[in-house]
Amino acid sequence: MDIGTLIPRHAQYRPDHTAIVFDGNRLTYAAFNQRINKLANALLAGGITKGQMVATVMPNCQELLDIYWAAAKTGIVVVPMSPLLQPKGLAKLLNDADAVMVFVHPNYAPLVDASRDGLDIPSDKIVLTGEDHSDRFRRYEDFVSDAPSDDPTDAALSDDDIYNIIYSSGTTGDPKGIVHTHYVRANYCTMFSQAFRMSPESILLQTGAAIFNGAFVLSLPLFNNGGTYILHEAFDMDRVIETLRDEGVTHIMMVPAQIIQLIDHPELDPDDLKSLECVLSLGAPLHLEHKKRFDALLPGRFYELYGLTEGFMTILDKNDFPQKPESVGTCPLFLEMRIRDDNGSNLPANEIGEIVGRGPHLMPGYYKRPELTAEAIKEGWLYSGDLGYMDEDGFLYLVDRKKEMIISGGVNVYPRDIEDVAVAHPDVSEVAVFGLPDEKWGETPICAVVLKTDASVAEETLKDWINANVAAKFQRASRVLIMDDFPRNAAGKTLKRAIRDGLLP
Fold this sequence. Notes:
The protein has 505 residues and is α/β, with parallel strands linked by helices. The chain has helices spanning 6-13, 29-45, 62-74, 87-96, 109-115, 140-144, 182-195, 214-225, 237-247, 256-264, 288-297, 370-376, 415-422, 459-469, 496-503, and strands spanning 18-22, 25-28, 53-57, 77-81, 99-104, 126-128, 138-139, 162-167, 177-181, 203-206, 228-231, 251-254, 278-281, 302-307, 313-316, 336-340, 353-358, 377-378, 381-390, 396-401, 406-408, 411-413, 428-438, 442-451, 479-483.
């Protein structure tokens, strides 16, 4: 299963169909294929061979897409790095990934420059995109200028060849390199194409960071079908609404914070978004309150994906949402799910335990971390570290991350139970609940919130309201913290640990 054949196929049979829209430029499949070929041939001419690691430190841009698909053709392994890393952290991950080359956007040239002392990558293998020039970097245009645009040498790819390594965000520990093979990515193409009802006429808008695994959930099936991929450099809600309306977008993915911005936007006119067929929520659970508000504005478009970059996922289909709005759906084709207790025994319906899954989309393992791989995958089952339960129909309901569960006075307190209450307050836009050490109780719940625009409520007043509405006394928050915004990773996911660490002595 060779995903490197997708773009050439569309270039042959749909050469004039628009493949990419970025920064006002439109590329047909024929033109996109030529760009990919030039980069692929340049990499091979530069001595980069199948199986070697090429890293990126880039925002959403055309060159990032070129690198992704050049890797698919050559068997070179692409390793996208978060631009939010500090120099020492970047150097550590580049070395961990055994990167032999790195492509850098001008915005992040100072970051890469500051990490050089800890790297073994020579200057001619650090390539700078854009028009800026520096003696300390090789220019991207110079790197590809003399390369031919015809097809590169056949890489003789196999299913087990590695396509990419994506490092975890580190929100629950040190970043780990998650390996995906060509077989896994080919399965993304076919499985998600069916799940999200994509066709050759689909138009996808990508606004979140394309370096994270979630971006591949819709992009791979989109390119599998030969649709049109619209890329924004960064998320901007005004521009998102404009593009949805003007380009006839059919599919978009958003993290919960972005969906909240959409439904709260004062200029949102549902009549302008009639082309939308799929709005996919992923990255974190979307609270029921926001799900209902979204469906009231844009009925029949809501999908939700719960999943791990390691390869397990469930999908709440738009047709199942009305009957199962609190769930995160069922497994796609060929995936299996179980709920297990601490002894590894399967639990019956409606009992809370750890979510485990298996199927053809699971990673082969963490890069160079066999001990962590053995902890995560046992007898072919991926242990998620998340708590949930299945109902009698096989639909999954998330409870919380196992590591985020608060034990207060010997009682298990699930942050999401408190979050579901807090987010129902008319002044609250987002909420994050976590535990802090407490001398009396061991841990105590803390509730951080972001208020809606122009809302005003005192922390103590809000705390009293939340504590009056939770289901049990042990769920009461000991403190409410009102914040202007939450710290987030490049994908827009809330970093609870960063909030918590900022409150520790």
